[in-house]
């Protein structure tokens, strides 16, 4: 439930399936996505999507990125609104996650600033969502980054180490 995502608690690291969490967050967001006429495309190509992490914290990050993508497309009227969620494995034993939207995009000079505390491009924004998300990903030995998507939109990416076979 969304309520469980907002409770403050110590992280509990267990073996979790990133693909399962992605589907779960999209399910939680389904009515809002439908209301805004936003389609979701999945390119979940990672053969191994298991990580060691805190399920609630990773869900917080995923939900924040999905909500940001939805908000980035709020003013779009001249093209279809869509979110593409992709995963892949890389040689370094990681799972790479990407979420792309067809919103207004981010100015290249802002791609680092958006992770600063209290920095927001939204009128009602607190400027904490991406800061918190970035610190959660760092705690999971990854890095959250953003880049402009051509011809429009933004892509957020992070890579996390795969769960070892020891569990």
Automatic annotation (TrEMBL):
<keyword id="KW-0418">Kinase</keyword>
<dbReference type="InterPro" id="IPR005467">
    <property type="entry name" value="His_kinase_dom"/>
</dbReference>
<keyword id="KW-0067">ATP-binding</keyword>
<keyword id="KW-0808">Transferase</keyword>
<feature type="domain" description="Histidine kinase">
    <location>
        <begin position="1"/>
        <end position="164"/>
    </location>
</feature>
<dbReference type="GO" id="GO:0000160">
    <property type="term" value="P:phosphorelay signal transduction system"/>
</dbReference>
<dbReference type="InterPro" id="IPR036890">
    <property type="entry name" value="HATPase_C_sf"/>
</dbReference>
<keyword id="KW-0547">Nucleotide-binding</keyword>
<dbReference type="GO" id="GO:0005524">
    <property type="term" value="F:ATP binding"/>
</dbReference>
<protein>
    <recommendedName>
        <fullName>histidine kinase</fullName>
        <ecNumber>2.7.13.3</ecNumber>
    </recommendedName>
</protein>
<keyword id="KW-0902">Two-component regulatory system</keyword>
<keyword id="KW-0597">Phosphoprotein</keyword>
<dbReference type="InterPro" id="IPR004358">
    <property type="entry name" value="Sig_transdc_His_kin-like_C"/>
</dbReference>
<dbReference type="Pfam" id="PF02518">
    <property type="entry name" value="HATPase_c"/>
</dbReference>
<dbReference type="InterPro" id="IPR003594">
    <property type="entry name" value="HATPase_dom"/>
</dbReference>
<dbReference type="GO" id="GO:0004673">
    <property type="term" value="F:protein histidine kinase activity"/>
</dbReference>
């Amino acid at each position: 439930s969304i309520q469980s995502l907002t409770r403050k608690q110590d992280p509990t690291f267990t073996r979790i399936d990133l693909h399962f969490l992605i589907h779960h967050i999209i399910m939680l967001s389904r009515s809002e996505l439908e209301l805004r006429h936003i389609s979701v495309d999945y390119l979940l190509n990672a053969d191994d999507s298991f990580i060691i992490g805190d399920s609630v914290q990773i869900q917080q990050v995923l939900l924040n990125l999905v909500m940001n993508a939805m908000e980035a497309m709020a003013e779009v009227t001249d093209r279809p609104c869509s979110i593409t969620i992709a995963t892949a494995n890389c040689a370094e034993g990681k799972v790479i996650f990407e979420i792309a939207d067809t919103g207004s995009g981010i100015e290249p000079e802002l791609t680092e600033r958006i992770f600063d505390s209290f920095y927001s491009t939204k009128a009602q924004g607190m400027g904490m969502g991406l800061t918190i998300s970035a610190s959660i990903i760092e705690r999971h030995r990854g890095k959250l980054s953003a880049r402009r998507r051509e011809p429009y939109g933004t892509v957020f990416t992070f890579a996390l180490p795969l769960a070892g076979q020891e569990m």
